[in-house]
What does this fold into?
Amino acid sequence: MAGTLNTPLRTALDGQLTPKFLATLNTNGEPNCVPVITIHPYHDGTLVFGEFLMQKTRANLGVCDTVSVAVLDDTFTGWSIKGRFRGFETRGERLDFVNTLPLLRYNAYTGARAAGTIEIIEVSSAISMSRHSVLSSYLRARAVAAFSSRNARRPCMPLQVAEKFRRMGAVRAAACRDRDGFPRAFPLLACVPAGNNRLVLCDPFTNAGLNGVAPGARMAVAVITREPIAYQVKGAYAGTRAGAALIELDACYSASPPLPGQRLDSAV
It folds into this structure.
């Protein structure tokens, strides 16, 4: 699809609690994917978001302007949006707009220091899942994980991170580098741990998001819960097993206050 927002997607982006994830790339093409709930459509056809405790994302945007946004609404319908970052504004109507959003207006930490603008380049077709298909995909991912469990000497996911990924009600998003040089971000509903160094992905979002992605590609996967607590893990796509995708993990980070970006795996 061209870079336009249809009504269901605009409604989802306008939702104050709609899960939205922003993917960026560093100079080596390594993806980073974190929840950015402040992403909203703006009146000129762009997206805006608040710069708030996002050190790695901001660093990536300073060297690579290609971005992707993953969106999932409460009907289990998801989209991927590709765009170009057009800069931060530290004053003006975009920043005023972002700081009037309830999530920042009543935030216990601070308001946004800047408003970022994303020019929409491409919007994917919507993918929808029924409640039954969400459950069946989740159970299938759990079954594959049970036969693909891998515990390594150096565990990547601490127990509290693995527990969040095991929650059926948690929302995840994954990101990789697409062939066109943009990050490709997509929502996930069936994504569970297989031991402490591997994730199993198994749903229609995964099938579409990993189409054409070769084993060995770098991946980032974020998870957010209702608390809200968020984490991000990184690793390499390891192909498929029994129709499910595998990611071998090598890094884990906090992705929510009070210490966003803090590394949590045993490499540190």
